[in-house]
Amino acid sequence: MAMNDSVNILNSAYLAVEYIDSFLPDNPLQQPFKNAWNYMLDNYTKFQIATWGSLIVHEVSYFLLCVPGFIFQFIPFMQKYKIQQDKPETWEKQWKCFKTLLFNHFFIQLPLICGTYYFTEYFNIPYGWEEMPRWYVLVAQCFGCAVIEDAWHYFLHRLLHHKRIYKYIHKVHHEFV
After folding, report:
1. Is residue 155 part of a domain?
2. How many domains does the chain have?
3. How far apart are CA 44 and CA 39, in angstroms?
4. Do 51 and 121 fall into the same domain?
5. Which of 54, 98, 117, 131 is the most exposed place for a label (fewest CB within 10 A)?
6. Domain that holds residue 172
7. Largest Cα–Cα distance of the chain, in whole Å?
């Protein structure tokens, strides 16, 4: 009985989104994105797309999202919002933090990103434009991934503060503001 109720709710939500979607104008960026996606599929292998494409998207989005925070810490007006008021920022600390980030991204995260291709192959995730989910499915999946990642990050971070491993592994994280 509970299963039928949840299926009915999901079907109703799906129909509501489809109804609203029918009123929205066509996305003018869809055709250029489709052309670029198909060009990528024609000129690169799945391994290259999954590994190097994921790395490029990860690095560009990570550092672009960090730019506002980096700039804000050097604006005097923003200092009142700083959590650790007793630790001033310097360019030397920022350079050390940047070098540590680059090391972590390329020697820890890159090997994990290399597993993306094998993950997509194992779960038979298609790369074609036609098989791509609708926009609202992508939004829901991104939201779900953000919730899972945030919970994972929170609990792992708490675990890294355990007295037996903090000084060996996690202490470097708290060197930076």
Report:
1. yes
2. 2
3. 8
4. yes
5. 131
6. 133-176
7. 62
61 found inside a domain: yes
Q: Report yes or no on whether pTM surpasses 0.90.
A: no
Within-domain flag for 112:
yes
Per-residue pLDDT for 97 more than 70? Answer: yes
Kindly report the backbone phi and psi dihedral angles of residue 125, in degrees, each rounded to the nearest multiple of 5, phi listed first: -85, 120
Take residue 78 and report the two structure tokens written for it. Answer: 């923003």
Supply the pLDDT for residue 85: 79
Pair of tokens at residue 130 = 């036609």
How many alpha carbons fall within 13 Å on the CB side of residue 94? 11
Q: Residue for token digits 């999954």? A: 50
Q: What is the pLDDT of residues 45-95, one digit of tens each?
A: 999 999 999 999 999 999 999 899 888 888 888 888 887 778 788 888 889
- Residue 6: per-residue pLDDT: 65
Nearest to 133 by CA among 144, 143, 141: 141
Tell me, yes or no, whether 26 lies in a domain.
Answer: no
